[in-house]
């Protein structure tokens, strides 16, 4: 499936009112979630098979023996710490965050996706620079619960 076909596939699903769409062939797997009325986050991921499509926008995983939670990127895209260059960052080291709080934006396929925290705690590290390319599964933040 080329990019134009993928865009058409997504447009058809959005027009039909789908909340989630998954596609798989021998060498590619694709999944996208659309916002429910009143919600803003959208997530999408494209990857090579046989990797699984994550269901959440943020995937926390326990770090090695340090007690911190890794907030990872659910898809490839460009990482932004704020909604626009003029606005303050969503979060910074030392901030207390709550579950569901927006931590950053990852732009993928011209869609600005808000990445939310799945845990409450304190941000102890921001692992990527603003406006950099990030990959699926890359650690974006470390949170002390």
- What strand order characterises the main sheet? 4-5-12-10-7
Judged by helices, strands and strand pairing, the structural class is: mainly beta
Task: Tell me the total number of β-strands.
Answer: 12
Inertia-based shape: elongated
Distance between the termini: 41 Å
Q: How large, in whole angstroms, is the Cα Rg?
A: 16 Å
Number of helices: 1
Helix content: under 10%
Order of helices and strands: HEEEEEEEEEEEE
> Biggest sheet: strands, sense, closure?
5 strands, antiparallel
Layout of helices and strands, plus pairs?
Layout: H1 3-15, E1 20-24, E2 28-33, E3 43-48, E4 59-62, E5 69-72, E6 77-80, E7 96-97, E8 102-108, E9 111-116, E10 121-126, E11 132-134, E12 139-144
Antiparallel strand pairs: 1-2, 2-3, 4-5, 5-12, 6-8, 6-11, 7-10, 8-9, 10-12
Q: Top keywords for this entry?
A:
145 residues; mainly beta; five-stranded antiparallel β-sheet; four-stranded antiparallel β-sheet; 1 helix; 12 strands
Question: What's the short version?
Answer:
The chain is mainly β and 145 residues long. It contains one helix and twelve strands. The strands form three sheets. Strands 4-5-12-10-7 form a five-stranded antiparallel sheet, with no helix packed on it. A four-stranded antiparallel sheet has the order 9-8-6-11, with no helix packed on it. Strands 1-2-3 form a three-stranded antiparallel sheet, with no helix packed on it.
């Amino acid at each position: 499936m080329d990019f134009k076909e993928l865009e058409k596939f997504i447009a058809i699903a959005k027009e039909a009112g789908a909340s989630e769409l998954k596609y798989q062939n021998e060498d590619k797997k694709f999944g996208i979630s659309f916002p429910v009325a009143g919600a803003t986050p959208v997530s999408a991921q494209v990857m090579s098979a046989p990797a699984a499509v994550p269901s959440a926008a943020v995937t926390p995983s326990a770090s090695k023996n340090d007690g911190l939670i890794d907030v990872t990127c659910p898809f490839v895209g460009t990482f932004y710490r704020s909604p626009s260059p003029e606005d303050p960052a969503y979060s910074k080291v030392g901030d207390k965050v709550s579950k569901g709080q927006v931590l950053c934006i990852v732009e993928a396929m011209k869609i600005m996706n808000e990445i939310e925290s799945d845990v409450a705690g304190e941000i102890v590290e921001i692992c990527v620079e603003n406006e950099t390319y990030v990959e699926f599964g890359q650690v974006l933040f470390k949170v002390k619960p």
